Amino acid sequence: MFNKFKEKLGSFKKAFSKTIDEKAVEVEPVIIEQVPESEESLEEEIEPIIEEETIEAALEEEIPEKGAVPEVISHVSVEDLKKAEYRKKVEDRKKAAEKKKEEKEEVKPVEEKKSFFKKLAPKVGFTQKAKALVFNREVYLDEKDLEEPLWELEMGLLESDLAVSVSEAIVESVKNQLTGTTKRIGSNTGDIVEEALKKAILDVVSANTFDFDEYVKNRPKPVHIVFVGINGTGKTTSISKMTHRLLKLGYSVVLAAGDTFRAGAIDQLGIHADRLGVKMIKHQAGADPAAVIYDAVQYAKAHNIDFVLSDTAGRMHTNMNLMAQMEKICRVSSPDLIIFVDEAVAGNDAVERAAQFNDAVPIDGSILTKIDADAKGGAAISIAYITGKPILFFGVGQGYEDLKKFEPEWFVDQLFGQS
Ligand SMILES: Nc1nc2c(ncn2[C@@H]2O[C@H](COP(=O)(O)OP(=O)(O)OP(=O)(O)O)[C@@H](O)[C@H]2O)c(=O)[nH]1
What CDD domains does its record include (predicted)? Predict the structure, then answer.
């Protein structure tokens, strides 16, 4: 999910890591807490913890001259380690390793370094050395240091379909988080930037969120929800998914076939109503949608139905007549919620449309569909920010179950996660 977003942010992370590596200074060496008492325990303690990554880090360093004591020794606490004994073991093992290496046939330079460290490093306390190398660095960044990486970030965000104002807000937040304070660097310099970016995005998408379930639970029944948006974005499908969800929660639902404009729209909703076992109120094709919706609300009131979900015709936000009609539908039926539905893959277009629909009615929140079609993520971040109204649900497929309640933390995890 959101693979393009992850891809776009790669160059920012790279630029940022480079800046950190250039500016970071080493601070006090690590204090080693646990030292193996015997040769056997030394083996046990250290051997299993060699990781490719730490070996790569060590490869940046020169292989010590033959006979020289590896630099790590200078970081090791003498008192705790019984240094003399330890150093001797190190020397012996190093000699043995070098002897073995000489006996081997010719190997490529990198392989040679790797095998050297694989054999030697563990025996000189490689894990401790890695800690001294990576955990004991600090960096202080000022605005100038971040100019280039932040430029990369802004480009990455814009290419991920974030609206300009949202990208700027996120860049500003990342800048404020990273400049002017001394940061300790962990094993991965990219972590610092990822944390800052996650927080910036989380702040944006968490603004104005509200709990849909809590909200509808506490509303007088019937709760009336109207779905609006342009053609083909997934309104009808989202209504059927929402119906399924509400039925599962124990509510009763009636549908209003308010899309009297598109041929086949009434039948399409009718099929879902039959499958889900709910009543659908309909008029003839071409009838006044406000009248259909009015009837559905009356039906719900008369039959103690908990929810009325009203479909409406898809309309372009640029079509003034249809937008005026939608405004009338919403005014006459005074719904509890007006939900804007658009597809996440539409990127900036979806953001623009959300803003226009919000101006016209206004909307109470959005459902973003087709998240499963590898959306870039920008629309989801931008729509909430631009409209000031929350994302309520994601459509993540075509089945009834494929409606995911929007949770900011879950969303940010998806943006940065492995999936
Ligand atoms: N992959 C995927 N497809 C979806 C999702 N939501 C809807 N669709 C598909 O998008 C297409 C259009 O969905 P509809 O529900 O008919 O869209 P609509 O907004 O009601 O369309 P109009 O009635 O023309 O306004 C259908 O093929 C749906 O199956 C989703 O979350 N993921």
Answer: FtsY (cd17874)
